[in-house]
Amino acid sequence: MFEFKVESFNFKKYSNKQLISLPLTLLLISLLILGGWYLSTGLPVNPGIEFTGGTEITLISEGGIDPIYSTFEWPIDSIRPIATQANAYIVTFQSSTVQPGQLELVSINAGFDVLAVQSTSPSFGAESQKLALFGLAMAFTGMAIVVFFLFRKLIPSVAVVLSALGDIVIPLAIMNLLGIQLSLGTVAALLMLIGYSVDSDILLTNHILKRKGDFYESTYNAMRTGLTMTFTSLSAIVVMTIASFLFGVDLLTSIGVVLIFGLVVDLLNTYLLNFSLLRWYVEGQQ
Q: pLDDT tens-digit profile of 169-216?
């Protein structure tokens, strides 16, 4: 069991402006990255094959990657090795002109052993993208409504929503920088981060506003529980991410990376951004 001596961090030494500067700076930089991505590509993030449409073929190439590039006439989006099988690769084509049957025939004629072929049509991918983004927006909107209904006070509710927004926006920007595409798996990770964010932020806000006692004592009590939950989750996710990376499970690796960065960002947003806004609010009520 983890034991955190949270009292060692003296919040009284730092002003609200000092504490809030780091998470707000990260949020601003992330918004600039997403905005720049949108201006250059037409989308704030790089969508995966589930959202753009395309074809993936899993094959065995004894000669490595070079023969794969020289065999296919269509532009290859990515080639990912499979760690659990020697000389096995997943080759992705996002061009709508690639036909699975033709792709498999070319592969066999080139001497590759074809293990699997799967395809997603552009229209189905576009529909999946709309549904995924709609689901993400509805989850965030529903969370905001519940928070405002729960506390019925503007500043504490805005603090929770703003922290949750940072927990989504900053990992999205990190995904762009690391080359992680937006897929159904990473959308699920972002939805999980909304849940993590609301959990830790409501815990802190509830301790400060609805429990009697010293302001900082209530903060430290919330931090003990919140940090225990977050670091327990982080430990499990780090193990999962390392294992999935070693075994070549790209989807789980991407989900794990997004969750790891998201949980670290959540610590900053909860105990710097949300805390600062709550302290400013409480001091203004006295």
A: 999 999 999 988 888 889 999 999 998 888 899 999 998 888 777 888
Place of tokens 């296919």: 72
pTM of the shown model = 0.84
Phi, psi of 56 (to 5 degrees): -120, 135
Q: Give the residue among 141, 149, 248 at the shortest CA–CA distance from 202.
A: 149
What is the Cα–Cα distance from 242 to 80, expressed in whole angstroms? 17
pLDDT tens-digit readout, 75-107: 888 888 887 778 888 888 876 677 888 888 888
Q: How many CB atoms lie within 10 A of CB 232?
A: 12
The whole-angstrom separation of Cα 116 and Cα 244 is: 20
Residues 6+ apart with CB under 8 A from 205: 151, 156, 159, 160, 274, 278
Give the contacts of 251 (CB within 8 A, at least 6 positions apart): 183, 185, 244
Residue linked to tokens 């004629």:
109
> Rounded to an integer, what distance in angstroms lies between the CA atom of residue 260 and that of residue 254?
10
Domains of the chain in sequence order: 6-47+124-285 (1.20.1640.10), 54-120 (3.30.70.100)
